[in-house]
Specification:
The protein has about 400 residues and is mainly alpha-helical. Helices cover about 70% and strands about 0% of the residues. About 40% of the residues are buried.
Length: about 400
């Protein structure tokens, strides 16, 4: 077209300025067409990603519940080891390193009643909590994005709301789980924890009768301080990393390796960043109350019986009410044992606790146990989220709902 006009110019004497203007208009029209095609392509890709990210609510809740349950069950023995180390009342402590604690509990108490003690309330709490979480997360995320909220902010806020909705389900189960983990087998002759319940039902009955219904929600506020920002950061990182992976691969199906990498790195990063909150939470929940002077002497302290002792000699919950006042951490693994010289907080305020730890131990005090916490959150998050995506794809091919709209 342009060459034709140039030839016409030489033959007819068309002004140069008019030729230049028409050429510019042709270029502008061509660029508009290219830009329009690019926008349409981007909208189609965004629509595909959006459709892929919006499964029916029942699918999301069930996939999330099964994914979270699987991750927690795989890591339950590590959580038991952590609970024994954090709640050990003996001096010197019976449990020291991670490996020796595993071996000791396995040898003395076995797998089910030892390493997997408290698995029943953990099972129920994990499934119910993650079902509530993913249902709330998906609903709030979609609502905010549909109303113009930036995706990153929507992911962060939805993570907060999801964990807030799940807390009433998993906090009571965590209290029961940690007490049963700490006591191990009923009438345990190898470890005197101060707790001794026949079963989960017996634990619920005794806790409510002796300490009140509110005891089932011990550590609720401190748990929210740690878990709300963790979930918000975890899902913000996860969603953004998956978007980058989709762009890199050019498909909504990013493959198993990238699924594992995005899920594990998101959980690990969130775990590292929230370690200071986890440390102060653990310190607050595991600090011992001030004991009467007489109880400070070894002769007055209860000691674990030998394996030849009769089971009836083990301490019962009713006879060790003072030790029940010792709160037990319901967090994921952070610090294992209280470090020598670590500051005593004597406060229930997370903010005050953070200040005390920083003044006495510095930044290193805020990040005690960051290694075990990174491993735990990476593995648990990787297992939960990879299984979550896998189940969503399975439900997409074999839908539980026979409707066009997600419920």
């Amino acid at each position: 077209m342009v060459l034709a006009r140039v030839a016409n110019f030489f033959s007819n004497g068309e002004p140069t300025q008019e030729l230049v203007e028409e050429s510019r208009r042709d270029v502008a029209v061509t660029m508009d067409k290219v830009a329009s095609r690019a926008v349409n392509t981007a909208e189609d890709m965004a629509e595909g990603i959006e459709d892929e990210g919006r499964p029916p609510y029942l699918h999301a809740m069930l996939a999330g519940g099964l994914g979270g349950l699987t991750g927690d069950m795989l890591m339950h023995s590590l959580d038991t080891v952590k609970t024994r180390q954090q709640g050990d009342p003996h001096m010197p402590p019976k449990y020291t390193s991670m490996g020796s604690t595993y071996q000791t509990i396995w040898r003395q108490e076995g797998f089910l009643r030892g390493l997997y003690g408290g698995v029943q309330p953990a099972f129920v709490g994990s499934f119910c909590g993650t079902v509530c979480f993913f249902g709330t997360y998906e609903y709030s995320k979609r609502w905010m994005i549909d109303n113009g909220v930036a995706p990153s902010l929507a992911y962060f806020a939805a993570g907060l709301l999801g964990d807030l909705a799940a807390a009433p389900s998993y906090v009571p189960s965590e209290v029961l789980k940690t007490r049963l983990q700490l006591q191990g087998r009923y009438n345990n002759p190898y470890f005197n924890s101060g707790y001794n319940y026949r079963s989960t039902t017996d634990a619920v009955r005794n806790i409510i009768r002796q300490e009140g219904f509110g005891a089932l929600f011990h550590g609720y506020k401190a748990t929210l301080w740690r878990d709300l920002p963790f979930s918000a950061l975890q899902f913000t990182f996860y969603e953004k990393e998956r978007d980058l992976a989709k762009s890199y691969v050019g498909s909504n199906n990013i493959g198993l390796l990238l699924e594992i990498a995005t899920a594990a790195s998101a959980g690990g990063a969130a775990g590292v960043i929230t370690t200071p909150l986890d440390v102060v939470k653990t310190r607050i929940q595991t600090q011992l109350p001030e004991l009467p002077e007489a109880s400070k002497y070894p002769s007055k302290m209860a000691t674990p019986t030998t394996s030849s002792s009769k089971h009836t000699s083990a301490p019962r919950a009713t006879s060790t009410h003072t030790s029940h006042n010792r709160p037990i951490s319901t967090s994921s693994p952070s610090t294992t044992l209280k470090a020598h010289g670590a500051a005593t907080l004597d406060t229930s305020s997370v903010y005050t606790g953070l200040k005390i730890i920083y003044k006495t131990e510095g930044i290193a005090g805020w990040f005690r146990g960051v290694g075990p916490r990174f491993v735990w959150t990476s593995v648990q998050s990787g297992t939960m989220l990879v299984l979550y995506q896998t189940l969503l794809r399975h439900f997409e091919q074999h839908p539980l709902l026979r409707t066009d709209e997600g419920l």
